[in-house]
Amino acid sequence: MWGNKVRISLFGESHGAGIGVVIDGLPAGVPLDLEKIKEHMKRRAPGQQAWSTPRQEKDQFEILSGFYRDKTTGTPLCAEIRNTDTRSQDYSELTVKPRPGHADLTALARYNGANDPRGGGHFSARIMAPLTFAGAVCMQILAQRGIEIRGHIYEIAGIPDTPYDMMTLPATVADKALPVLSDERGREMAEAIEAARVSLDSVGGIVECLAAGFPAGLGRPIFDNIESRLASILFGIPAVKGVEFGRGFETARAHGSENNDHPQISEKGIRLTTNHGGGMEGGISNGMPIVVRCAFKPTSSIAREQDTINLMTMQNDKLTLKGRHDPCVVPRAVPIVESAMAIALLDLMEEN
């Protein structure tokens, strides 16, 4: 469960009957376009591209509560997504041979072996489908308040896309198979992903996301500030290993004279001439676009033989994974990052 005012609770397992989300704290009487929600979720759905897992899940949702006559009711909004294409036999070894890079061993320690290991169970990125639904809902509410959120692939396998300028709302790339600003770099990324797939390996990358129109003055200093709130939900996305805001780690190599965002009076009031801070100072929004980047590790599930242990014999062992996996999770992660950002920003707005 995550959130202070707008709270989400994710439920289900990768190979269970279904997965879903309960969203509490939404404002009442807000119209929602279900077709737009479907379009947003389709961007994350598996089985659509060569670099995506071939698992066929349409991610069709059913709203069970909190929605009446095309508007939110203000009571908890619950949506369920049924799992339709599971192949649990591919995971029969995992109770004995934990997968490298996965939560198999930590789940064993945390739940004393009672967890569902099929497809990663509740630790699977499949659980991001209902989070994406919740984010699509929050994005529509934010858009009605003049706040737009857009993301793109910042980098895959060391190949960079054109970065956002961090000062204005960028062009949308949501309709592209590879959501990049530079189509030439996108082709290079696709080649790198395919090369990894053919060699039974995987690659990682970075997603950049920007929110424009978010008002100044939201958040708080020190603990539970806007950066920590955003980071806490972004780190909930499987495979995220790093989060940075604005110029992020690059600021460590800059001088103060280069990095400071200088205020000036403009027709729109007080504005900053640059946005190196990524829209936040002192844990509070400053009215500039909020910019975040998330680093995703290479997919842990690869078809190469790997070293592991055998929990039955308590000996070192080998494991060759079966199943269907993404050679790169980054393309499908873009709408997830947008969704997580939307949930956090709406939570901040409703709390204030």
Which features does this protein show?
about 350 residues; alpha+beta; five-stranded antiparallel beta sheet; Chorismate synthase, AroC fold; about 25% strand; four-stranded antiparallel beta sheet
Question: How can the largest sheet be summarized?
Answer: 5 strands, antiparallel
- CATH structural architecture: 4-Layer Sandwich
> How far do the termini sit from each other?
20 Å
Helix content: 10-25%
Number of strands: 17
Q: Radius of gyration over alpha carbons? A: 21 Å
Mean pLDDT: 92
Number of helices: 7
Shape, principal axes of CA atoms: globular
- Reported by name, the CATH topology is Chorismate synthase, AroC fold
Structural class: alpha+beta
Q: Identify the quaternary structure here.
A: single chain
The domain tally reads 1
Spell out the CATH superfamily: Chorismate synthase AroC
Strand content: 15-25%
Q: Strand order, main sheet: write it out.
A: 8-7-9-15-10
CATH class: Alpha Beta
Unreliable stretches: none
Order of helices and strands: EEHEEEEHHEEHEHEHEEEEEEEH
